[in-house]
């Protein structure tokens, strides 16, 4: 059965071409179809808003610049987050952890959203059966550590990228992070094996980095909500989109 998005067909040739960008996905065909559906929805929306779609990338970029809005985090919001999450802002401590790493996608927001959906499926499996963590790391992780069940050994503050570090040091030993952790390397599912305590970092030391982090998270949430709205309002035949 053909896949039709608001009257526009997604052909097998289009899916075949997109598959090359989804080779690292757990289900490359599903990832390719989802990417093409979201791309088509954004393109249609850009056209509705009067953008010249002869350059599809520029048209979608212009649409997102116009449509995606969020309130940037000010110093007060950063301080509130700092006070509510002080366990994340310590130094001198160390941890032992394992992870399962998934690629971000082919470099744009759409493919990142699709890659995240695949990673969340494995996260659900791990949370339902933590004993399978090493097995699933071997099956899915794109990090060389996957061959050792995802083990990263022991490390201290400053040795990992900030997002990874914050997740590890805000998770109790023996637990798995409740959500995916996104870094420049991809999406991580993290299991904290052990933790040793340290001392607090002052708000002044972290406020600039914290503001950047909170704004990035708000931007990703705005993108997620916008795509979800487009999917909910669309008539998609021949394929059922997963929840974003």
What does this protein look like?
There is one protein chain. This protein is α+β, with helices and mostly antiparallel strands and 244 residues long. The chain has two domains: 129 residues, Porin chaperone SurA, peptide-binding domain (Triger factor/SurA peptide-binding fold, Orthogonal Bundle); 111 residues, Chitinase A, domain 3, CATH 3.10.50.40. It has eight helices and nine strands. The strands form three sheets. Strands 5-4-7-6 form a four-stranded antiparallel beta sheet, with helices on both faces. Strands 2-1-9 form a three-stranded antiparallel beta sheet. A two-stranded antiparallel sheet has the order 3-8. The longest helix has 31 residues. The chain is globular, with a radius of gyration of 20 Å. The model has no long low-confidence stretch (mean pLDDT 91).
CATH topology-level name of the largest domain: Triger factor/SurA peptide-binding fold
Quaternary structure state of the chains depicted: single chain
Order of SSEs, N→C? EEHHHHEEHHEHEEEHE
**Unreliable segments of 5+ consecutive residues:** none
Helix run count: 8
Please give a handful of descriptors for the protein shown.
244 residues, alpha+beta, Triger factor/SurA peptide-binding fold, Chitinase A, domain 3, 2 domains, four-stranded antiparallel β-sheet, three-stranded antiparallel β-sheet, 8 helices, 9 strands, 48% helix
In brief, what are we looking at here?
The chain has 244 residues and is of the alpha+beta class. It has helices spanning 12-19, 28-48, 56-67, 75-84, 109-128, 133-140, 162-168, 203-233, and strands at residues 3-5, 8-10, 90-91, 94-102, 151-156, 181-183, 186-196, 199-200, 236-237.
């Amino acid at each position: 059965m053909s896949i039709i998005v608001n009257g526009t067909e997604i052909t097998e040739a289009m899916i075949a071409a997109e598959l090359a960008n989804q080779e690292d996905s757990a289900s490359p065909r599903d990832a390719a179809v989802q990417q093409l559906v979201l791309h088509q929805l954004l393109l249609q929306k850009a056209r509705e808003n009067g953008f010249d779609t002869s350059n599809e990338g520029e048209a979608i970029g212009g649409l997102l610049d116009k449509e995606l809005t969020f309130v940037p985090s000010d110093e007060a919001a950063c301080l509130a987050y700092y006070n509510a999450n002080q366990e994340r802002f310590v130094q001198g401590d160390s941890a032992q952890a394992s992870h399962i790493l998934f690629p971000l996608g082919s470099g744009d927001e759409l493919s990142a959203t699709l890659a995240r959906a695949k990673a969340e499926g494995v996260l659900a499996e791990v949370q339902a059966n933590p004993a399978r963590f090493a097995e699933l790391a071997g099956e899915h992780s794109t990090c060389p550590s996957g061959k050792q069940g995802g083990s990263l050994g022991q490390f201290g503050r400053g040795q990992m990228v900030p997002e990874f570090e914050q997740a590890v040091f805000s998770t109790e030993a023996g637990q798995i992070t409740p959500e995916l952790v996104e870094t420049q390397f991809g999406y991580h599912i993290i299991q904290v094996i052990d933790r040793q305590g340290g001392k607090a970092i002052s708000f002044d030391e972290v406020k600039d980095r914290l503001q950047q982090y909170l704004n990035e998270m708000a931007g990703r949430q705005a993108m997620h909500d916008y795509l979800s709205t487009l999917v909910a309002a669309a008539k998609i035949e021949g394929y059922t989109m997963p929840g974003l």
